[in-house]
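Lay summary. Proteins are chains of building blocks that fold into shapes, and those shapes determine what they do. In this project we predict the shape from the chain. Here is one chain we studied, written as its sequence of building blocks.
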Amino acid sequence: MGYRHRDTGPRLALWMLVALGDAVLLLVAAGLSAPVAVLGVLTLTVAGVAVWRWTRRPATVPMATAARRRA
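And here is the predicted shape, written in a compact code that computers can read:
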């Protein structure tokens, strides 16, 4: 009865970050150079942030469609 619905978004993001860090550590331990691994992490982070921001943008309505709706 005292259960409240919690947003799992931040928790999921944290676990994804941990998994990404583990993958980088495994690649570095396997012999891949550290700069290449860091560049990969940076690329994935920038792409993830860009996708997140792009999906959060409000939908825009073209001016012609808006004018037709008012008529």
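What the prediction tells us: The two ends are 50 Å apart (CA to CA).
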